[in-house]
Amino acid sequence: MILTVTLNTALDITYRTAALTPHATNRVAEVSERPGGKGINVARVLAALGHESVVTGFVGGRTGDALRELLAAEGPGGRAAHAAVSDAAVTDALVPISGTTRRTIAVVDETTGDTTQLNEPGPTVTPAEWAAFLTSYEGLAARADAVALCGSLPPGIHVGAYAELVRLARAARRPVLLDTSGEPLRRGIAARPDLVKPNADELAQLTGSREPLRATRDARRRGGRSVVASLGAAGLLAATPDGSWRAAPPMAVRGNPTGAGDSAVAGLLSGLVERLPWPERLARAVALSAATVLAPAAGEFDREAYADLLPRVTVTEQSSQPEQESHAPRQHR
Amino acid sequence: MILTVTLNTALDITYRTAALTPHATNRVAEVSERPGGKGINVARVLAALGHESVVTGFVGGRTGDALRELLAAEGPGGRAAHAAVSDAAVTDALVPISGTTRRTIAVVDETTGDTTQLNEPGPTVTPAEWAAFLTSYEGLAARADAVALCGSLPPGIHVGAYAELVRLARAARRPVLLDTSGEPLRRGIAARPDLVKPNADELAQLTGSREPLRATRDARRRGGRSVVASLGAAGLLAATPDGSWRAAPPMAVRGNPTGAGDSAVAGLLSGLVERLPWPERLARAVALSAATVLAPAAGEFDREAYADLLPRVTVTEQSSQPEQESHAPRQHR
User: Superfamily assignment of B2-9+36-101+124-331 in CATH?
Assistant: First the structure.
C-alpha cells in the first residue's frame, strides 16, 4: 500500500464556458466535480497502475462530504465505465475537521481550451485536529510501502509540518517523497526525504538557480536523497545516489498540464515500490505525465497514449561533472 | 404575507480576488455564500422593510441544503448583527427536487470592484416535481397579499410556466407581479399580471422598441395591467391605469448594481400591499434600488442611504400622449 498525504484537499470543480469574459456575466455550459488535491490525484493514478493506495489529510463541511462521496464513487466498485477492471482501490483515511474543505474552480474556454483557475483558501486546521492527524498518520505510515507528501499547507498548520511528517516516515523506515513548494519545501527537504519532485519554479525558488542540473544537485545537498525536477515539456531531470539522468518525451505534447506533475509523482512512487531501476522509473513518470497532458479531463491520463509513449521516452545519463554535461551524454534506452 | 417565487434558486458565492487574470491561477482572498435567486433577494428586502414573506421555488442537493441552512440563519432569530431588530421573517416553503441547486459565482476585483459572474445551469425539474410545486403554490398564493414571480426558468419547466402561475394567482384574486425575460415574459404578460417590471433590455426584447415610454405602453397593451420599466441609473418609468410617471434618484450612484432590480421589486410590492399611491411606491423603489447599488455586498441595501435618498427621489408625471411627453411634465413631489 502507498500512502498519499494531502493536507489541503479540495473539491475540484470544472466549468466549461464558450469563452470567459471578465467583468461580464458568463453562462456555464457544463459543470463537473472531482475529489482534488495533489495527493488524491497521485492516488488516482496509482490505482490505475494497479497499486493499492490510502489517502489521508483533512476534510470537512459540505464540500468535504461531496469530496468523500465522489472518492468512494471512483473506487473499483463505483468507478465510471471508462476505467479498467484492474484498477486498485483508493482507500479514504481522511481526518474530519470542523472547517470546510476548499473548492477550486477551473474555467475552461471551450473554443481555446485555455483555463482560468480560481482557488479558494483552505480551512484553518486546529492544533487538536493536527494532533489527531499525526496519530492516524503514524499508524498508516507504519503499514505503507512508501509515503508521498503532496501540495500546500492549509492555514493553521505549522510551516515545518512536512519536515515533521518526513521524520516520522523515516523513523518508521518508510521511503518518503515530498512534493511541495516555498518554505514548507525548504524545511521539509532539510529533514532528508528520500525523494523530492520540484518543478522548475519551485527548484529555482529553493536554490536560487535557474540552471536545472546545478539546482537539482544543490537540492540534493540541502537534504533530498534523490531529486527529480519536472521541466515541463522537456521532461524530467533526476539527481540520485545512483547517477543523474534526463528523461524526455518523444515529442512536445499540447493539452491541459493540470495534474501532469502528480502523474509523474505516481510514476516515480510506483517504480520505487516495484524496485525498478531509475531509468525505468523516469520513463514511466515522463510517459504518464505526457499522457496526462493529452487527456481531455484535467488530472486523468490517456491510457493508450501512455502505452504508446512509454517505449519512446528517451533517458540520457548525465555526467557527474555539471560542466561536462553537454559533451558526452550517454543514451540509456 | 407576500409570496415570492424563485423557480431557479441559486447558492450565490462571492469571491474577492486582488484582480482576476484570465488563463492564470487566481487566489481567492475571501469567500462568502448567500441564498440567491431573484425572488429570494426580493424577500430579503421585504423582510428588512417589515413585511413577512414566504419564498417558494425548487431546491435540491448539497447546494440546496446549504441554501436552506443560510436562509434559516438569515431569519430574525439567526440574522447577522448588522440587521435591524424590526426585520420580519422570511419563511422557507421551497419544494425539494432530485436535482442539485445551481451555484452562481461573482468574482469581485478588490481593486476596481469590477465583477465577473459565472452562472451554472439550473437543475432539470421533472413533471412530478412541477406538479408538486403547483399544489403547494396554489395553497400559498391563496393566503398571500401579493405574489411575485421572479427570474429565469430552470430546465424541464415549460416556457408558459409563468403564464400558468399568473392565471392561478388571478383566479385566487391575488395581485401578481412578473419579473422575468424572453419568451417566459412574452407568454407571462399575455396572462395579464397586475405588474411587470422589465429592465430596458427585456422591454426592448419584448416590444422591439428602445424608446422607453413607447415600449412601456406597448407592454401594457400586451397584457401588463401596470408596467414599471427599470432604466438603470435613470430610475423607473411606470405606465399604470392611474397614469404614467418617471421616478429618478437625486444623483447617479456608483457601485454594484447586482440586486438593484430585486430591491425595486420589493419596493413596488411593499407599496402595493400598503396601498400607497403610485408616486410613493415608485419613490420607494428608486431609493431602495440606489441604496442597493451603494451597499458593499451585492443584493443588500444601505439603510442609511435609503433613508437619505427616499425624500429626494424626483417623481414626474408623464403626459398621457407619448408625443407630448417632453412638453409639459408635472412635478409631483
Answer: Ribokinase (3.40.1190.20)
Distance CA B197, CA B268 (A): 9
- The third-level CATH classification (topology) of the domain covering A2-7+37-98+123-331 is UDP-N-acetylmuramoyl-L-alanine:D-glutamate ligase (3.40.1190)
The DSSP secondary structure of B154-185, one letter per residue, reads: PTTS-TTHHHHHHHHHHHTT--EEEE--HHHH
For A112, the closest chain B residue by CA position comes to B23
**Distance, CA of B26 to chain centre:** 31
| A31 lies within 8 A of chain B by CB | yes
| pLDDT (tens digit per residue) in B169-220 | 999 999 999 999 999 999 999 999 999 999 999 999 999 999 999 999 999 9
Q: Does B15 touch chain A (CB under 8 A)?
A: yes
* Rounded CA separation B214/B227 (Å): 12
Whole-number Å distance between alpha carbons of A266 and A50: 11
Tell if the CB–CB gap between A105 and B120 is shorter than 8 Å: no
- Pick the residue from chain A with its C-alpha nearest to B19: A22
Residue A120 contacts B where some CB pair is shorter than 8 Å: yes
Q: Are B198 and B210 in contact (CB under 8 A)?
A: no
What 3-state class would DSSP assign to B142?
A: helix
Strands B30-36 and B10-17: antiparallel
Q: Best of B30, B38, B62 to disrupt the A interface by mutation (most A CBs within 10 Å)?
A: B62
Smallest CA–CA distance, residue A101 to chain B, in Å, is: 12
Amino acid A68: pLDDT: 97
pLDDT at B310 over 60: yes
Any A CB within 8 A of B114 CB: yes
| pLDDT tens string B256-294 | 788 999 999 999 999 999 999 999 999 999 999 999 999
Residue B76 has pLDDT above 70, yes or no: no
CB contact under 8 A, B26 and A116: yes
Which residue of B23, B27, B121 is in closest CB contact with A119? B27
Domain ranges of chain A: 2-7+37-98+123-331
pTM of the predicted protein model? 0.87
What cell was used for A275? Answer: 524496485
**Partner-chain residue, chosen from A22, A28, A119, that has the shortest CB–CB distance to B20:** A22
- Taking the C-alpha atoms of residue B322 and residue B22, their distance in angstroms, rounded to an integer, is 47
Q: Give residue-wise pLDDT tens across range A158-215.
A: 999 999 999 999 999 999 999 999 999 999 999 999 999 999 999 999 999 999 999 9
Which 8-state DSSP code applies to residue A199? B
Q: Which one of A25, A107, A119 has the shortest CB-CB distance to B28?
A: A119
Q: How far is A234 from chain B (nearest CA, A)?
A: 21
Report yes or no: A111 at the B interface, CB cutoff 8 Å: no
Planar angle of CA A69, A71, A149, nearest 5 degrees:
130
When pLDDT is cut at 50, 70 and 90, the band that residue A74 belongs to is confident
A26 vs B: CB within 8 A: yes
Q: Is B262 a catalytic residue?
A: yes
- Please state, in angstroms and rounded to a whole number, the distance separating the CA atoms of residues A217 and A238: 9
